[in-house]
Amino acid sequence: MLKNDLLLRAAKGQETERVPVWLMRQAGRVLPEYRATRAKAKNFIEFVKSPELACEVTVQPVDSLGVDAAIIFSDILVIPEAMGLPYQMIEAKGPWFENTVKNKTDVEKLRIAQADDLNYVLEAIQLTKKELNNRVPLIGFAGAPWTIFAYMIEGSGSKTFSKAKQFLYTQPELAHQLLEKITQSTINYLQAQVKAGADLIQLFDSWAGVLSEKMFYEFSLKYMSKICDALQPLVPVTVFAKDAHYALEKIAETHCNTIGLDWTISPKNARQLAPNKTLQGNADPCLLYADEKKIISETQEMLRTFGKHRYICNLGHGLYPDLDKEKVKLFVNVVKEFK
Ligand code: CP3
């Protein structure tokens, strides 16, 4: 039995004594101990593939920030790799794929990933569950099919993802074939994460915001919805579609439990659009550059507007590497002390 199950109860719509809090990218470069562990690996990919090191950095923010959940240290790009499209993580630049998907032959060459291909993540989850010793729940995750597709076509990060969008407009049928393959791979992967011990699953659709509303429903939400169905009733599922508040009402129609919000929507509007779901978010990570007084007042105002019920506190996106750890801790403590 979990000693602290606030996150799971909030996700399921049950009452909680206080609002649970965790942070996207909490295992990362704001923590000096993360940098020390990362230095033990040859590069980012070796780091992700080492269950012991992944376990170490997953637990660090639980100890040093006092958050109410751990999120397994990995990356969304392990799926393209397992499907046959390897990547590199270039220092200070981000992901880079030597080969990208351009045509039908490329799509046909890709495999549907099986749980075994990602054993190193499953081992990291098992180790972490032992190490956490039921202190807090462990969140598993994957990229949403559209976001994974975007990297597979584009081959790197991009402001517009115009190559990936060009593919949707010019080869829609082939796009659906690839999205279907990614979805199947992701379902295999996430069901295995749950079997290995993940208590809740979050889907990251980081590039939802580059799509129009209509394109989002056709090429993104449809596939996230399939993944939600495949995980019910095993564990609660969170859908985080960044910059897609235009689609909140439709996201609320899927079988997810929680909707993650970025800072571009007000808590009040979000509640009106998705009254039947738990909401997660949505402080601007840049708020944590402000002085202490401002961090406290803005965080309290956010907590008051969301209300204590069906709410998980988080930022609207991941922590930035140059944020001050003490201010991150302050944010967490303001939430934990809020009455
Ligand atoms: O949240 C956590 O603490 C868990 C770990 C986690 C990482 N990546 C580790 C990581 C999670 C949940 C992710 C998801 C991820 N990866 C997303 C979706 C979330 C989001 O931010 O929108 C995306 C788009 C990626 C792809 C990716 N990985 C990019 C674009 C980059 C480079 C940019 C950056 O933030 O550094 C990464 C690298 C990465 N993934 C790092 C970490 C801790 C930094 C690598 C380092 O240590 O130098």
Physical arrangement of strands within the biggest beta sheet: 1-4-5-6-7-8-9
Which cofactor or ligand species appear? coproporphyrinogen III
Largest sheet: 7 strands, parallel
**How many β strands by DSSP?**
9
Query: Based on CA inertia axes, which overall geometry fits?
Result: globular
Percent of residues in helical segments? Answer: 40-55%
* Spatial extent as radius of gyration: 19 Å
What is the name of the CATH topology?
Answer: TIM Barrel
Question: What's the number of helices?
Answer: 15
- Which CATH class applies here? Alpha Beta
Strand content: 5-15%
- Low-pLDDT stretches are none
Number of domains: 1
Gap from first CA to last CA: 26 Å
CATH architecture: Alpha-Beta Barrel
Helices and strands, with pairings:
Blueprint: H1 6-11, H2 32-38, H3 44-48, H4 51-64, E1 70-71, H5 78-83, E2 87-90, E3 94-97, H6 104-109, H7 119-132, E4 138-143, H8 145-154, H9 162-170, H10 172-196, E5 200-205, H11 213-231, E6 237-241, H12 248-251, E7 258-260, H13 267-273, E8 278-283, H14 292-306, E9 311-315, H15 325-337
Parallel strand pairs: 1-4, 4-5, 5-6, 6-7, 7-8, 8-9
Antiparallel strand pairs: 2-3
Helix pairs in contact: 2-4, 4-7, 8-9, 8-10, 9-10, 10-11, 14-15
This protein binds coproporphyrinogen III.
